[in-house]
Design goal:
Elements (H helix, E strand, L loop, with lengths): L15 E2 L7 E6 L2 E8 L2 E5 L14 E3 L2 E3 L6 E3 L5 E3 L8 E7 L2 E7 L15 E5 L3 H12 L5 E5 L10 H4 L1 H4 L12 H7 L1 E4 L4 E5 L4 E4 L4 E3 L2 E4 L3 E3 L12 E3 L3 H11 L4 E5 L3 H12 L3 E6 L6 H4 L1 H13 L3 E4 L3 E5 L2 E4 L4 E3 L2 E4 L3 E3 L2 H5 L8 E2 L11 E3 L4 E5 L4 E3 L4 H15 L11 E6 L2 E7 L6 E7 L4 E8 L2 E8 L2 H15 L1
Parallel strand pairs: 11-12, 11-17, 12-13, 17-29, 19-26, 20-21, 20-26, 21-22, 28-30
Antiparallel strand pairs: 1-10, 2-3, 3-4, 4-9, 5-6, 6-7, 7-8, 9-10, 14-15, 15-16, 18-27, 23-24, 24-25, 30-31, 32-33, 33-36, 34-35, 35-36
Helix pairs in contact: 1-10
Length: 505
């Protein structure tokens, strides 16, 4: 066995003493497989040590009751069953049986993965999900996980199966992730799970009275419960020349592929907008050795969300990696490869990527008569103003117990968690959606984690050093912490999330 593949720590089949644990955890192995022992309360559990999302090290995670949370992107797993109880992880982890011989902990046998049990209670037979993004997929997957045996039809106007969208502006765009990493599940999953996934399928109308949706081809599809998860679409640039073929937005797999193809022959890129997507695109295209210019109207990138100090750091980080900023400026027109700025400056660029925000796709909901307020208005159960119709993801505006406001956010993890809650409520659970919003953004080797939601803030308490890439920032309004951002303070970020959960419950 090579050094690289050599399993970690002691051989757990021979037993280890509890005194060998550090912070309630111990990494060892059973045969060639690494196993993490976790002490929680008076029990010891044995679980696979790498998160099933991006393989984050659970040994550095947070134990809460009989669960463990991943330090990277805040997924959560049951220590008893291995089930992924919170996205972004969707796949369960293996667990092993633990026995005690006096003061020694022994692990020898892996448990069989539990199978979903079909629901005995009567449930509506036809569920329709409109949307093939994070919320839609998470809902379909959870319905089957919960044992729903009825029909699930998933309607997506995209040509690709549901994918891990954060990858499209990060590793995949940078050339560090192969294409087969993108799908959330392979084609066989939908067949085996009995999910009727229809791609390139447009929905033209929802009829709440007849409980049916009308497809673009005129076909009607009846439903007992409906989930609207239509997501958001990029805001289009409204300037002369914005419709040229070398001008791109990034939302879908097709968009990312088109940018990668164009990057193959481009030399200079103009990114319009210093949003999270815009700057992730800038970082990814720098990884492809292209010259990158960013034009944006704000004084600092990300200042509105992260504040001036973090904004200055993000700018400096990108400049260290060769990105050229033109802030306090806008592009007025594009004449071929020539971009003319409001300041009078000119940038020649053979590839343009526009990242000036997204807007929720509300037309279908509004046409159906659903209550809307800068998003589809939903209750704490994610049900719309019409019974039996739910909404989740980028379109949903919900009552958030943490910020004490009705909010709508465009976070991948929030969409997945809402999809799961909506699925359980479609089954009659009446489960409140009270998860603390979370997102992460990657810039070169620097991850920024953000928990909570602050539309605005009075002040920012900074612990540690932003420039030193070791910090925790608390965004406060009227003395109350609404959100926390961090760089390489993963455990603190998890603890901040837990504190907000307990405060808001």
């Amino acid at each position: 066995m090579s050094e690289e593949s050599k399993p970690s720590g002691p051989d757990l089949t021979e037993g280890v003493a509890l005194t060998a644990f550090r912070d309630g955890k111990l990494l060892g192995h059973v045969g060639a497989e690494d196993v993490l022992l976790v002490q929680a309360g008076g029990e010891v559990f044995a679980i696979e040590p790498a998160c099933s999302h991006y393989h984050g090290p659970l040994a550095e995670g947070l134990v809460v009751d009989d669960t463990i949370r991943c330090p990277w992107h805040h997924a959560c797993f049951s220590l008893r069953s291995g089930e992924a109880t919170r996205p972004p992880a969707l796949s369960a982890l293996a667990v092993w049986e633990v026995t005690r011989d006096q003061d020694r902990i022994i692990v020898q046998r892996k448990r069989e993965a539990p199978k979903p049990t079909a629901r005995s209670a009567p449930a509506p037979e036809k569920f329709v999900i409109v949307g093939g993004g994070a919320a839609g997929f998470a809902a379909a997957e959870m319905l089957r996980r919960e044992g729903f045996a009825g029909a699930i039809t998933m309607l997506s106007d995209d040509g690709a199966m549901p994918v891990d969208r954060p990858n499209l502006s990060k590793d995949y765009l940078a050339g560090n992730a192969p294409e087969d990493w993108l799908p959330l599940r392979g084609e066989d999953y939908y067949r085996d799970a009995g999910i009727d996934l229809r791609l390139n399928t447009n929905v033209s109308a929802i009829d709440a009275k007849t409980r049916s949706v009308t497809l673009g081809n005129g076909d009607r599809l009846p439903f007992d419960r409906l989930l609207l998860a239509t997501g958001a679409e990029p805001v289009k640039l409204q300037i002369p020349g914005a419709d040229q073929p070398h001008v791109h937005t990034l939302r879908s797999v097709a968009d990312s592929r088109a940018i990668i193809k164009a990057a193959g022959s481009a030399t200079r890129v103009l990114v319009i907008g210093a949003s999270f997507i815009g700057l992730e695109v800038a970082a990814s295209l720098r990884a492809r050795k292209l010259e990158v210019h960013v034009v944006a109207p704000e004084e600092r990138p990300m200042q509105r969300v992260l504040g001036p100090e973090m904004g200055d750091f993000v700018r400096a980080l990108h400049e260290e990696n060769g990105v050229n900023f033109h802030l306090g400026d806008t592009v007025e027109r594009l004449d071929g490869t020539r971009a003319t700025l409001k300041s009078g400056g000119v940038i020649e660029a053979d590839l343009v990527v526009v990242g000036i925000g997204v807007k929720p796709r509300l037309a279908l909901a509004e046409k159906a008569g659903l209550a809307a307020d800068r998003g589809v208005s939903v209750s704490e159960y994610l049900e719309t103003s019409i019974a039996g119709i739910f909404a989740a993801g980028d379109i949903a505006r919900w009552p958030d117990p943490h910020s004490r406001q009705t909010i709508r956010v465009e976070h991948w993890v929030v969409a997945e968690r809402q999809g799961q809650t909506a699925a359980r409520n479609m089954l009659g659970r009446r489960e409140r959606f009270d998860a603390v919003p979370f997102f992460w953004s990657q810039h070169y080797d620097v991850p920024i984690n953000y928990v909570g939601h602050a539309e605005s803030f009075d002040d920012i308490a900074i612990d540690g050093s932003i420039a030193g890439r070791d910090c925790l920032l608390k965004y406060r309004k009227a003395g109350r912490v609404l959100a926390v951002a961090s760089i390489y303070r993963d455990l603190d970020s998890l603890k901040a999330e837990l504190e907000m959960e307990r405060r808001g419950s």
